[in-house]
């Protein structure tokens, strides 16, 4: 008799019970192939077949592999690395979520990765025999991964914060001084200006690209753009550098041949128009040595705002402008809710060091104490106190440590999915704040200054922009702001 498991063959007598052995081989196929690199199967019958190993006792055969692979001195020493557990969990999660940013770092099959994780688990939580039984049946994988997650949660988070801080030192010098004020202003702007009732317009699904181009070229005339802007547009267009592909996101990018491209993915002509404006300004302001600047989104968002103003000037659907501004504000709030905690922790990490679970717990407990103190000294009949009591009662029923752990599991997953792209959200927050503020000003010199910014973005710092457009007050405390 013979049984095939992938490219591995088992030969045995018809009366031989193969069921348990079959399960063990299926669970440890990669381990057996790793140890016996050249064999193509095993036989429980004496054989002369090439690359078939005669096995008299399978249990001894299997235990010998485990002993030599996992309980030799070299392996034991390698497994003592203090960063091993962190590396194992990152590797496991990167594979699980199929991250497009962080790629697997271990050149081993997932089965072998789980073996190493289980080895460390049973080293702390069980015995050698428990580890062997796990390899045979694989029944506690979820429990083992949960253990690893609990062991490494804050180590991993601080590891990512450390990388972010190092990256900021090299590229984003203004981050720490403005991030908290920016996120506060973004939420304040949303609360004041977001409109939840805008008349929706019905758009044609088919986009007339010639109409989009006409709008775009007329817009360049409207703002009296430098003549070379049109020249660069036609050069890009004639080199097939502009595509309208709904299968890919709207973006300015360099292709595999390092050639500049713009893709527009839009639901209608108007959306395509201001998206083209946004991405084209990226094309104009692009400098290879300045690709990671936090100011990159600012000129594009500013001219996107002007594109909406242009549509209003020519009486193009008033509700469109409100919808577009709403979308920009809503996008900022989404960025804030997704990345706001990370940004604040980056600042905290840069100032006081690692984020600790016990510190987070104490912060929440202090908040609870303050709320309860306020309730105890307030008017029990007031609606605010009654509401606070209800909230306090619900909060007191929560498992606070579980809430903290879930929060940081989510933040770790964001880092694992996005990598340092989490910092890109700050570009949009900063760019929107600057663009909105400058767009409020009535000053004939602004457009000329913005053309210079587009041409020389790599020469500007945030402070330069604030001074150039006389908006330094936006990062000052409220008491010092211009009225």
Describe this structure in words.
The chain is mostly helical and 483 residues long. The protein has three domains: 2-70, no CATH class; 75-171, no CATH class; 172-483, no CATH class. Helices cover 64% and strands 5% of the residues. The strands form two sheets. It has a four-stranded mixed sheet, with helices on one face. A hairpin with a 2-residue loop joins strand 1 (2-5) and strand 2 (8-11). Helix 8 (141-171) packs across helix 14 (318-352) and helix 9 packs across helix 18. The protein is globular and about 95 Å long.
The ordered H/E elements are: EEHHEEHHHHHHHHHEEEHHHHHHHHH
In DSSP terms, counting alpha (H) and pi (I) runs of 4 or more, how many helices?
20
The total tally of domains equals: 3
Q: Looking at the structure, what is the overall shape?
A: globular
User: Strand portion, in percent?
Assistant: under 5%
* Mean pLDDT reading: 87
Q: Name the strands of the widest sheet in spatial order.
A: 1-2-3-4
